[in-house]
Amino acid sequence: MHLPLASLALLAIPLTAALCLRVPHTLPIPPIPELNEIKRSFKDARIVPDVIDEFDPSAQVFLEWELDMAVTPGKSVNKSDSASTPILTASNLPFGHRGPYLILTVDPDAPSHSDPKNSPFRHFLQTDLWLRGELSDELPYAWKLENESTPLSEWYPPAPPPGSGPHRYVTLLYAQPDDLDLTFVDWDDRKRFNVKRFAERTGLNEPLAGLWFYVEVEDNDGESLVPADPQLQLVLDGT
Ligand SMILES: *[C@@H]1O[C@H](CO)[C@@H](O)[C@H](O)[C@H]1NC(C)=O
Ligand SMILES: *[C@@H]1O[C@H](CO)[C@@H](O)[C@H](O)[C@H]1NC(C)=O
Fold it and tell me: What is the mean pLDDT of the chain?
């Protein structure tokens, strides 16, 4: 077999280009979180049962902002870093099922963990997400989920009231049913968005994947105005 040198060079170009174009990381790439760790962290942080009753993930979902950072479960995130719509990526989704998927994000601590009267507050709801075979820029094991429609609830940047303690932001990924009917949702009102009832009413079944992070904004004295929840604080300090 005789391959001219030029064609070998051509073969090499896409690989080299792909390697060079990768966004350089200043932080180490976090290892892919294990499913049983994610499941446990949802229980430890009491997202089960505050947001959903059961959680048995079979895949991983990630939120990525273009700042050399991807969110993994239980991470502390700066308010300013989470201000824009994140890039959505996932690993281990059912083989051959490219979409559509639905993602939502809620805050069960609005306006605070000890006074959750507006909870869960809906921060994001995006339908019609598809895997198109494009790798994440940040995580070598995740694939981009691309939206084919505009979000029904656009990303509402986390903005905990100063001194209201840590707020959990919970993202859940579902397989989107073909006959999804969302006409009953009041899109103008983001408060008290009951995820359990929403999933029941829309026939979403259980989430395939989930992720949570927390944001805390201190008041001017660097103090929390609400009593700390010792059990939650322990989880947050440990992650
Ligand atoms: C969050 O912001 C503070 C102050 O702007 C900065 O010192 C800190 O490194 C930031 N943390 C992260 C995780 O980016
Ligand atoms: C995808 O979502 C973004 C906002 O998150 C929106 O600007 C864009 O138009 C959407 N894409 C499509 C094809 O609707």
Answer: 86
> How far apart are alpha carbons 230 and 207 in whole angstroms?
28
| Ligand 2 pocket member 156 (CB < 6 A) | no
Tokens 């976090």 map to which residue?
30
Q: Are the beta carbons of 158 and 107 closer than 8 angstroms?
A: yes
146 has pLDDT over 90: yes
Rounded to an integer, what distance in angstroms lies between the CA atom of residue 212 and that of residue 122? 14
**Which residues make beta-bridge pairs with 124?**
105
Q: Say if CB 108 and CB 194 are below 8 A apart.
A: no
Q: Is 118 in the pocket of ligand 2 (CB under 6 A)?
A: no
Write down the CATH number for the domain with range 34-238: 3.90.280.10
Write out the two tokens for 175: 């397989």
Q: Which of 117, 135, 141 is nearest to 191 (CA)?
A: 117
CA 33 remoteness from chain centre: 13
Instruction: Provide the CB-side half-sphere exposure for 85 (13 A, CA).
Output: 14
Q: pLDDT tens-digit profile of 157-172?
A: 999 999 999 999 999 9
Residue bearing the CA closest to ligand 2, atom 2: 150
Confidence at 95, pLDDT banded by 50, 70, 90: confident
The pLDDT of residue 205: 87
Q: Give residue limits of the domains in the chain.
A: 34-238
Instruction: Report how far ligand 2's centroid is from the alpha carbon of 125 (Å).
Output: 12
